[in-house]
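User: We ran a pulldown and think these components assemble together. Before we commit to crystallization trials, I'd like a predicted model of the whole complex to look at. Sequences follow.
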Amino acid sequence: MNDIKVLIEKIIRGDTRAFQTIMNDYQRLVFHIVTRMVDRVEDREDICQDVFIKVFENLSKFQFNAKLSTWIAQIAYNHCLNYLEKKRIPLFNDLDIDGDFEMQPGDMISPEEYTEQQDMTARLQQAISAMPIQFRTIITLYHLQHMTYQEIVEITHLPEGTVKNYLFRARKWLKDRLISTYAQEDIWN
Amino acid sequence: MELNHISHADLQEYVENEVGQAKRQIIERHLQYCAQCRQELAHYQSLSTALNRDIDLQINPDFADIVLHRLEANIAQRRFGRWLFVIAGLASGLILLIALIIFTRTAYFQNLWMNTIVTAFRPLEKTYQLFSELLAMINIEPQVIGLASVILLSFLFMDYIFNKHSDWIKGLIKHFPILC
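Assistant: Here's a predicted model for the assembly, 369 residues in total across the polymer chains.
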């Protein structure tokens, strides 16, 4: 904690090189959030840059009440929300996330695609990208960043019950989609 | 029988080790004889493992350098802005001072100036007299007060124009919010 305080004090005094340590430590966190919330690949890097510039400029406001990772994630999340609002992209699409998963004609995959998507990670990423943005974000914070419900609540400002509910529904939807799209014995290989 | 199956929420909590001891025992007892729930559990376990696996983010190797470059450019721009603010403040103060001198020294303006002051400040005439006497007592020329006021007002004006409060104005706002 003291190391972080010293580092932050250096950065506040204008030491941009000290900020590199923060960037190295939290680069993946910011990229995870931005990658999952922003579909346009060409916008992602600019957004990540803007997030770190905001972090640098607001570091003097960091109160040490929360973890630095949570605070940075909050900035990244809010920045992405602003971007989505500006582009008029809804957080929830028309996908029926509550109903039982049914195969849509467009979901059927060709043998070529099947061969390409042998890798489970690729299959999962494709399924995740079809989910509403809010669900993707919560799944990312929980599973990739190993954040607690409380931390996710702090970042998203959603009630804990809602966070849990979204997480359960997202996992169920992902499982059903993967089972429906791929042969059961091949899903997790 | 359907009602007795473990709910999806409970299965997920079980996978993520979020269930209490009592619930865990009930779930494990059920799993011993229910193949359907065991299969669902296996799916959720595999899904959880896959979700925990990191993804390829394809981060530009120069990313940190680009951000640092942008930050340094921002800092330089802000420093320039601060100097510009000081120079503009002093310049406007000087212009106003020159205008004030012309205004008070020229006979035509002097009459106009005095008439305006007398008319506008008639109700405050006594206060003005007292103020002048006070200034005379402490041996300060009214022009000095005028100059200080003009410079202060110019700074406040420039601060408003640039919409970037300098540190001392931030302090002023903090301590005297009503005044500001």
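Residues 105-186 of chain A form a domain with the Arc Repressor Mutant, subunit A fold (CATH 1.10.10.10). That may be worth checking against your pulldown data before setting up trials.

User: Thanks, that helps.
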